[in-house]
Amino acid sequence: MATVIRGSDNFDTALTDPDVSPNAWHRYANAAVNYTSDTTLDFNTSVHTGSNLTESGGQITVSVAGMYLISVNLSRYSSTDDTMDWTLQVNTTQISGARAYYSGNNVASYDNAGFTVPVQLAAGDTVFMHGKGYLHGSGTNSMTSFSGVRLGA
Questions:
Q1: pLDDT of 97-127, one tens digit each?
Q2: Sorting pLDDT into bands at 50, 70 and 90, what band is 42?
């Protein structure tokens, strides 16, 4: 990939100030929800959704192909023995090594599971979390979030 320097750019700013905003997202859950059957997790609050992306019901569709770094953090506050089990999916394919799992316990506590993985996406691919379990959410201090950014081609 070539670096193009234009106008008032110089070599230093061209390499240190890439505009990743159009191909990035950060969403979170603003309320606790208990998903008792397999479903797509809807991270219903947007901090940022880039202009090259669309979001619907927790699913992010990219319009620019490339390697994306995707991070998920899932949290629950629970005193039940329900298991939390979520996987990252691209279209209909589960991504290996991208599972957030926490075995239930009957002690009241905050439990967290998450991951960060690089995933090659094609234009038009849809990425989302699929699974079930109780998730903690908050409008002011959520610990359940879904983020991604395109790193390059």
A1: 999 888 877 776 777 889 999 999 999 999 9
A2: very high
Phi-psi region of 152 (alpha: psi -120 to 50; beta: other; left: phi over 0): left
User: Based on the number of CB atoms within 10 Å of its own CB, is 62 exposed (0-12), middle (13-18) or buried (19 or more)?
Assistant: buried
Roughly how many angstroms between the first and final C-alpha of the chain, as a whole number?
9
Q: What whole-number distance in Å separates Cα of residue 51 and Cα of residue 49? A: 7
Asked if pLDDT for residue 1 goes beyond 50, the answer is no
Cα gap 93→19, rounded to integer Å: 29
Q: Phi/psi zone of residue 61: left (φ > 0), alpha (ψ -120 to 50 degrees), beta?
A: beta
Q: How is the chain classified by DSSP, letter by letter?
A: ------TT--HHHHHH----GGGEEEEE--S-EEEEEEEE----EEEEE-TTEEEETTEEEESS-EEEEEEEEEEEEE-S-PPEEEEEEETTEEEEEEEEEE---SS-EEEEEEEEEEEEE-TT-EEEEEEEEEE---TTT---EEEEEEEE-
71 touches 130 (CB < 8 A): no
